[in-house]
């Protein structure tokens, strides 16, 4: 029989509630979630859904990451990833100092190739490689951009800042991700790129999505769409616009606004029919396949887990899809399968998430919450289930 880890999300939620001298009834009222849902989440009987965590974070006036236990310090230390965070912070801090006299940057096309390679590494799930290389490249790119003052130099630097954002987000450092985005916007403005400006608002909106601040996130999506109107019509523009609608659909789904979510999905589907699969355009993986994958996500956010599982069974992932996006999809399918009682299928999907992009899956909150939910279900699961928990760094307590 499995037992929950001693510091699962429900335990942290209960501790934060007691620190604020709130009863379970009081918190359920403040968060506008059912009392039974809160009590079962604290006990670990129910896994903490993004909707519940975000609602409680707003009510308790804490960050979502605080309730989720991010960043996962022990695991980061074990994987030697914690030591890579400080250099990234330091590289972001020298953005306005001009050229560094001790750095001799490579040719612009070489730096651009390096920036693109980092984007590809993140999408391949190679988080450690990206985290190891991005700080040095940001410092080199900063000197090159200041020294040359070209549009290309600033946009290459903006791409490197975007990778810093990706790394920080995937490893659970929201403050670092926010700083990286601010630097990306700063560089994009110097490169006078309206599409990248719209991308900035989209990525910023995703941060508010993770924090459960959907109204602000929707406003940022609207701002991003307005920014895109200043750009010339192109496939690149359409891809970013379509991806914004996908992000807005998930946001509306998590806010349990089904009508709005389906409207955004419909608009994204219309755009995807024109663009086709556009996997590498700004590395967004936009296209018909991503619309179908996001439909699964939206159904899950609306608590329509049975429909989400059915929709997931009907779709196939393109072979050239980024491993990071594929792994994320398997994590979401695993969550939906767990909620519908398909524990064996759910664990198989967790295994697929790990097999596809292990570094990402290990630090993915949905993977961890789904694992905890399967553990609390106390069903017969294979011995490999416990080894999966040990790999996550949350082995079952004795």
Written description of the protein model:
There is one protein chain. The protein is mostly helical and 398 residues long. 72% of the residues lie in helices and 0% in strands. The chain has 4 domains: 1-69, Orthogonal Bundle (434 Repressor (Amino-terminal Domain)); 71-192, no CATH class; 199-321, no CATH class; 331-398. The chain has 22 helices and no strands. α7 (85-92) packs parallel to α9, α9 runs antiparallel to α10 and α12 (194-210) packs parallel to α14. The longest helix is centred in the middle third of the chain and has 22 residues, at 127-148. The N and C termini lie close together (10 Å). The model is unreliable at 1-5 (pLDDT under 50).
What is the topology?
Layout: H1 9-19, H2 24-31, H3 35-43, H4 50-60, H5 64-68, H6 73-78, H7 85-92, H8 108-123, H9 127-148, H10 151-171, H11 174-190, H12 194-210, H13 214-228, H14 235-254, H15 258-275, H16 288-301, H17 305-314, H18 323-339, H19 343-356, H20 358-362, H21 365-377, H22 384-392
Helix pairs in contact: 1-3, 2-3, 2-4, 7-9, 8-9, 8-10, 9-10, 10-11, 11-12, 12-13, 12-14, 13-14, 14-15, 14-16, 15-16, 16-17, 16-18, 17-18, 18-19, 18-21, 19-21
As a whole number of angstroms, the C-alpha radius of gyration is 21 Å
Largest sheet: none
Tell me the strand percentage band. under 5%
In total, the number of strands is 0
Q: How much is the average pLDDT? A: 92
Per the principal axes of the C-alpha atoms, what is the gross shape?
Answer: globular
Low-confidence stretches: 1-5
Q: Count the helices. How many?
A: 22
Structural class: mainly alpha
- Total domains: 4
Termini separation (Å)?
Answer: 10 Å
Give the fraction of residues assigned to helices: over 70%
**Order of helical and strand elements:** HHHHHHHHHHHHHHHHHHHHHH
